[in-house]
TrEMBL record:
It comes from the Eukaryota. This is EF-hand domain-containing protein. SUPFAM superfamilies: EF-hand. Keywords: Calcium. GO terms for molecular function: calcium ion binding.
Amino acid sequence: MSKNCWPRFRVRNNTDNNGYLDERDFACLALRATIIEGKGEFSFSRLQEYQHIMLGLWEEIAELADFNKELLQDGKITTDEFKQAVQQCCMGRRYEDFPQAMKMFIDSNFKMVDLNDDGVIGADEYRFNCVTKFAIDDIEVVDEAFNNLLSDDDRRRGGLTLSRYQELYAQFLGNPDDNCPAIYLFGPLSEFSL
């Protein structure tokens, strides 16, 4: 696709870097989300909730992504198949129209970034999220990306609320406009070759 967010979209769920996604990758994401949300503390009940979310997402995406109909044989999909499946279920759609497991995944991502649990992702939380994902040597680049992401209402609120995060996530996945603010949702991605 030309001129959209997808060339910069990188499948970070492939936890073992084998080029494929499988159920284990999503189970690892569930544990990661549990630990991040707990700020290092482990909660078995939260793990079970995240396992439900992540494995539900795996099942939905795997069903959509199994273009070669070999999933039942090998239990894995390529990262390209995963991207195509996400595009198929999200392109041009609003958050409300996404599959339930995708919405739960997005909401859980918001919780992981909202470190102080105040319902708003502020600049400090955005920075922390960016530097834990990318090698960044200039905080001004991150701050500029955060400012480009925000609307006037977001600025008045001091950052992104859950509903605004949901809206931007949907734009990131489905808006073909390379100038949409959502391209900054995960940081200054244009600064990195993904």
